[in-house]
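Most newcomers find our protein records easier to grasp once they have seen one. Read left to right, the backbone structure tokens trace the chain's path through space. Nothing more is needed to start thinking about how sequence determines fold. An example says more than a description, so a record of this kind follows:
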Amino acid sequence: MTSAREIFLVRLPSSFRFLIRLLLLVSALIGCKTERRNPSLEKPILTERRNPSLEKPTLKEAAMTLGADLPPERNRPAKPAPHRRPGGHYSLSGSFSTGEGSYVRSLLADGASLWVGTTEGIVKVARKSGEAVQTVTTKEGLASPYIFTMKKDPKGVYWFGTNNGGVSRLDGKELKTYLPSHGLADFWVYGIDFASDGAVWIATWDGVSRFDGKNFKNYNTKDGLADRWVYALSVDRDGAVWFGTESGVSRLDAAGRWKNWRHSDGLGAPNKSGLSKSDNTGFGTLSQSKGEDYKHNHNLSVLDPGGNETYNENYVFSMAIDGDGNKWFGTWGGGASRFDGDRWQNFTTEDGLAGNIVYAVTVDPHDGAIWFGTNHGVSRFDGQNWSSLTLRDGLANENVYAVAIDTDRHIWLGEKGGVDEWAPREKGAPLK
């Protein structure tokens, strides 16, 4: 059938037909041009992203309820592990992209805002509207755009730990960066926490630093630290500082005494499957940097050359302290470990944990439940029961590097390429 446009062209003189065809061609080429997003996060990049296995993408205004409105084959969850329930108490509320090649390694829920730390910089998002209201990159003064950790101190000051760019402090007016030339132990900063005396404790790739606002005091293996590579730290209610390292857990108590725990002491579940060790130490650090030319080593692989999972004895990725004072540690292959001061207890996929490689541990401020970001999804443990969200439930990526919980009890998950938001299915309903 001849289209109306073709009939119109036929009726015109040949010179006009040629001109109009040329204009149509140019218009088509312009229309096909794809918008490229700036990885430096100069503008809001809140593009929706979804798990490609889902037949129909779900927008924020049409949230997907877990176990409903999915293709038939996705309504049949895999056989759950003992004591594990599928994450049916949550629905996918929304998501946004941070760029195809970026990784979200840190999240900070902050009132009406969410701070998103990526390998390309920081973006502050208004939770309700999804609007990006602020960005912090090298243009704003960061020495490195790659963010490992973010924390807000009791005075409302924000602290950012970076990959090969030291630690930065944002007080709302000024961004100040501290490097080894200022006394910081190392350029790589993985963890930050605050003591009751106002000191800032900083975990680095070459020991730990205590900063009193003016001076740094550094500690390393010669002082009692289990390993110089420190990936997590927390200050407990007694003033002791706990560190998760590549060689186990260390504690520096208020009296200045050190004590270490390793796998042989109970940290991490045994390697029942005989998995090989990974040599990917540093886990996604910068391979090199020259001036502002940052070349990211985004090798966050936890697989061996044959595609099998790995197990690194003593390696601690993350930690948190719950309301009862229990210390929780996320390990590389040994699952999640809980230490009550006397006894270690380990939890793995056999118990209900989504994956045995635990990148993130977060305590729910509303009910005290523990959330774990793992290599196979995110899990929640209330002390008795487990529930998990996985690819089967709609996660965009099964590797969950960061978990944050906002004042509305929404769960935010940092993954490769963006952030997912999950909401309780019924407001005020118990989360079991």
In short: Helices lie at 4-10, 14-32. The first helix runs from residue 4 to 10. The radius of gyration is 24 Å. The first strand starts at residue 64 and ends at 65.
